């Protein structure tokens, strides 16, 4: 009985540590994507009206990503930052 309790405690500690590590990775990925997207955003490079619309979408999505980052919802941050990055690229193509 005592051995089962020790195994259960070790298992719980392992799961907890693994989840902390995953959260740290998401935090870093979120920050990296947000920074990359901000660096790529340059209104002067938006081509035409369609490009300006894509740029506006990117700004909105990046705002959502920054909000998610602030409240430590890193998976949501990553999702929004990736979408924002897509629209930044579309903006530069005039689409």
UniProtKB/TrEMBL annotation:
Q: Which PROSITE patterns match?
A: PROKAR_LIPOPROTEIN
State the source organism's domain of life.
Bacteria
Annotated signal sequence range: 1-24
Which key words tag this protein in UniProt? Signal
The name of this protein is Lipoprotein
Q: Could you tell me which species this protein originates from? A: Spartinivicinus marinus
């Amino acid at each position: 009985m005592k051995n089962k309790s020790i195994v259960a405690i070790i298992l719980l500690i392992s799961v907890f540590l693994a989840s902390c590590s995953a959260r740290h990775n998401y935090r870093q990925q979120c920050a990296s994507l947000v920074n990359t997207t901000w660096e790529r955003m340059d209104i002067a490079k938006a081509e035409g009206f369609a490009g300006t619309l894509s740029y506006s979408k990117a700004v909105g999505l990046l705002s959502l990503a920054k909000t998610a980052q602030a409240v430590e919802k890193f998976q949501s941050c990553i999702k929004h930052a990736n979408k924002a990055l897509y629209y930044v690229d579309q903006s530069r193509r005039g689409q």
